[in-house]
Specification:
By secondary structure, the chain is α/β, with parallel strands linked by helices. It has a single domain, classed as Metallo-dependent phosphatases (Purple Acid Phosphatase, chain A, domain 2, 4-Layer Sandwich), CATH 3.60.21. β1, α1 and β2 form a beta-alpha-beta unit. α4 runs parallel beside α5.
């Protein structure tokens, strides 16, 4: 029988502290999970590049972590062609395709508006030409959105946002996580905030979504819960940027964005989320030899 998970933490922890698979020594009443066996959601974005060995490194990390694999877009560089999916994604992350639920990115959309992406992942990628879909995992609602707003409408009155609002309204899930490629909040130096995904945040926040996962910037960053205006909010959304899947790394600006609590631009790696019935644990699993770690736990709203 599993013991309760640790109390809510939103701080960067030192190496050697809580690992997601470890049994904690103590717990508070908010995490009395008893027989709660978490589901695992693990992955990253910005992955398959024939010019980098980072995807080989992160695929080996996935080999040791069971569960559902997610991607956060830009799966096959540089243009998402069928050949690039076969040569640059398939040899490594492709061996986990049967357990992967993907997200489309701007590089995936460069060829025929993403046709090779939809062909490669099949039904797991959602409706062809749309790319948004949802599924359930251990009582959690997982929402995958398409933030390539040059090709799909991301406005508040768009088909995608109406679908999102309906999905959230119809769901009785206590915990929810959404993922899309472009971040609204980021400290990255290469790509800045994508304002066109603000309507995503508005709807997600209104419905009490707990976590947002993004890629696009090739680094790792975690934000404390905040509202769509960027104000710290205990009932807000915790954002993770995990653009460390293998397609190169890039850094941060001189000043961290508000509410940014953990950052790393030196390591390839994947984010492991352990989804409990009423909360989650997170762990950034970095490449071998890394000294960076970021782990913690939080309750759902």
């Amino acid at each position: 029988m599993a013991k309760p998970c640790p109390p809510m933490m939103f701080t960067l922890l030192g190496a050697g502290l809580l690992a997601l698979t470890a049994v904690p020594a103590a717990a508070g009443p908010d995490h009395a999970k008893n027989a709660d066996v978490p589901a695992v959601l693990v992955g990253a974005g910005d992955i398959g590049s024939c010019a980098s060995d980072g995807d080989e490194i992160t695929a080996k990390l996935l080999d040791r972590i069971p569960g559902t694999v997610f991607t956060l877009g830009d799966n096959a560089y540089v243009a998402g062609t069928a050949a690039q999916f076969q040569k640059c994604y398939e040899p490594y992350w492709g061996r986990h395709r049967d357990r992967t639920r993907p997200t489309i990115g701007n590089h995936d959309s460069r060829t025929d508006e993403g046709d090779p992406y939809y062909d490669y992942f099949g039904k797991a990628a959602g409706p062809k030409g749309k790319g948004w879909y949802s599924y359930e995992l251990n009582g959690w609602q997982v929402l995958v959105l398409n933030s390539t707003c040059d090709l799909v409408d991301c406005d508040a009155d768009s088909e995608q946002l109406e679908w999102l609002a309906d999905e959230l309204s119809d769901s009785d899930a206590k915990c929810q996580v959404a993922m899309f490629h472009h971040p609204y909040f980021t400290s990255g130096s290469k790509h800045h905030s994508e304002p066109r995904v603000k309507p995503f945040w508005d709807v997600l926040y209104k419905h009490g979504v707990d976590v947002v996962l993004n890629g696009h910037n090739h680094n790792y960053e975690r934000f404390a819960p905040q509202n769509p205006d960027g104000k710290a909010d205990a009932d807000g959304i915790a954002e993770f940027i995990v653009g460390t899947g293998g397609g190169g790394l890039n850094g941060f600006g001189h000043h961290a964005a508000a509410n940014s609590q953990a950052r790393d631009a030196k390591d390839f790696g994947v984010l492991k989320l352990s989804l409990h019935e009423d909360g989650y644990d997170w762990k950034f699993v970095a490449q071998p030899g890394s000294t960076f770690t970021d782990t913690g736990s939080a309750d759902c709203h």
